[in-house]
Amino acid sequence: MTDIVEKSPHPEEVADHPLAAPDSTKKDVTVGSIVDAERALPTYDNKYTGSSVADEEISDHDLRTLRHVADRLPAAAWLVAIVELCERFTYYGITGPFMNYMQNAPGGLRPGAIGLGQSKASALNYFFQFWAYVTPILGAVIADQYWGKYKTISVFAGIYVVGLLIIFATSLPVAIDHGASLGGLITAMIVIGFGTGGIKSNVSPLIAEQYTNTKRYIKELKSGERVIVDPAVTIQSLFMIFYLCINIGSLSAIATTELELHVGFWAAYLLPFAFFFIGIVALIIGKPFYVKKPPRGSIVPTAFRILWIGATHRKMVAAKPSYRSEHGLSAVPWADHFVDEVSRALIACQVFVVFPIYWLVYGQMVNNFVSQAGEMNTHGIPNDIMQNINPIAIIIFIPICDSFVYPYLRRIGIPFKPITRIFFGFLFGTIAMAYAAIVQHLIYTSGPCYEYPLACDASNGGQIPNDVHVAIQTPAYFFIAMSEIFASITGLEYAYTKAPTSMKSFVMSMYLLMNAFGSALGIAISPTAKDPDMVWTYTSLAIVTFFCGCLFFLIFRQFNKDEDVLNSLDNEGLDELIEHDAQGTLNITA
């Protein structure tokens, strides 16, 4: 593997080198050929029209006036979606009861096992999120360089099962009574986080890779309308469906929080443990049908070497063999094309920089919102069941956005491109935190304990919450759901579409790493997660989120104009874009 970096291949080897420029003379499209699958124009199903017009034949007038629609998704993509649904069912099923499991002691108003209190429980919960979003880097490197996505997902699913067994066994009443629950929880967090990391960085690129068309074409519908079938719109729709499956799976927390309250934590953890095996079965059944692109060698170290050359010369073009040959610099074992791909990946990674603030806000939903609900009148329902309003809202509004809102905006000439969608996601996150601050103020101004809920004598030993109905929390979960539809889904889409073929898992892991950084920020501010300071905690988060959202839009709005060029999978025009941007919009050249 190191030969790729340390020495140039012989001329006769260049054509087969993993970093060589695509050979335009190759025409056959096969699953095993990454270049051909990405660059060749497939044969389209024309049962709705007598003919189709390929991308290069579509006129500028048609591009501007015809409606852009999504293509059909292959069956293999739906099989991958089932795998993700089952994994997320398991993940959210076990994390749904986490806060009560850690924060409360047995025998109190709310279910509990360990009794750490709100601040320590919040910090440990953030640690798990941090760990679960750091490990995707390892999963991405293994997939991109050694095993490929399918094998990596399969192996890490086995590791996942071990972690699930540990948390189930140590949540049994006998284990809690003997003090094994805390040690078992931490061990399970590490093992499960390791397992989910190997899956998470690879499953979203795997589902996107099932759709192999990269060219726009015109199709005539049964109604007689001519439309442009657009791969970019298809990928956007695909990730909407992918995220829909995530949130259908996350509804498992409804069942596990009910089991936690009425049966016990062991039952709450047994259900997702058993359900996970459905995903494993789907993974095995789909193996013959998946498009499985093989790993392409030592790509990531080479990409970092290109970035280093670009940084030291203050322009990425300095890493291109053609530039180095022209200026008498040392030879390098990659093609100009690969430098263009790394440049595009760098653009995506710049956009991700502000996402830790977003994920810090999102984390409130599974940490402090649960504690907030525990201070309110729940009228017999589990306090941690409220978080399921979020996925329910997402399940309702994803189809509305995908089928009505986005197509309508495109029809009236408003494309609502990624940077704008992410900005709106930050705005909804801001509203969610502002609303949470209002709810917390209502709690602090209500009896019997006012600013110290469940902690005064009038609470009868922590049995009487403040007199505020828990349903008042509902809009906060709705606002976070809308923020996810605009920011989180678009982030997944951006990570995939801007990543080169050889680095899709790695760039996706960089996006997921931002969640880990957000969790690290959550750990840092967890000492403030206590009464009577929560109003200021939520207010501060609202202010910071609004500021970061506005800053993000001001810095990156130019990328909306360059979206079509950046999405060009053969990178036509990327050289021109990077050179044109020498003024500094992309911060790639000096």
Task: Write a concise synopsis of the structure shown.
Helix content is 62%, strand content 2%. The protein is an all-alpha fold. The chain has 26 helices and three strands.
Notes on the structure:
There is one protein chain. This protein is mostly helical and 590 residues long. The chain is 62% helix and 2% strand. The protein contains 26 helices and 3 strands. Strand 2 and strand 3 form a beta hairpin. Helix 4 packs antiparallel against helix 13 and helix 20 packs antiparallel against helix 21.
Strand order, main sheet: write it out. Answer: 1-3-2
**End-to-end C-alpha gap:** 32 Å
Q: Count every beta strand, where a strand is a DSSP E run of 2 or more residues.
A: 3
| Strand proportion | under 5%
Alpha-beta content class? mainly alpha
Describe the global form: globular
Cα radius of gyration in angstroms: 25 Å
Helix content: 55-70%
Main beta sheet: strand number and arrangement?
Answer: 3 strands, mixed
Order of helices and strands: HHHEHHHHHHHEEHHHHHHHHHHHHHHHH
- List low-pLDDT spans: 1-51, 569-590
Mean pLDDT: 83
- Please, how many helices? 26
What features would you highlight for this structure?
single chain, 2% strand, disordered N terminus, mainly alpha, 590 residues, three-stranded mixed beta sheet, globular, disordered C terminus
Sequence-ordered SSE layout with sheet pairings:
Blueprint: H1 3-6, H2 34-39, H3 60-65, E1 67-69, H4 75-95, H5 98-103, H6 118-134, H7 136-147, H8 149-170, H9 173-177, H10 181-209, E2 217-220, E3 226-229, H11 231-250, H12 252-262, H13 265-285, H14 299-313, H15 321-326, H16 336-351, H17 355-363, H18 368-374, H19 389-411, H20 418-444, H21 474-497, H22 504-525, H23 534-556, H24 558-561, H25 563-566, H26 574-580
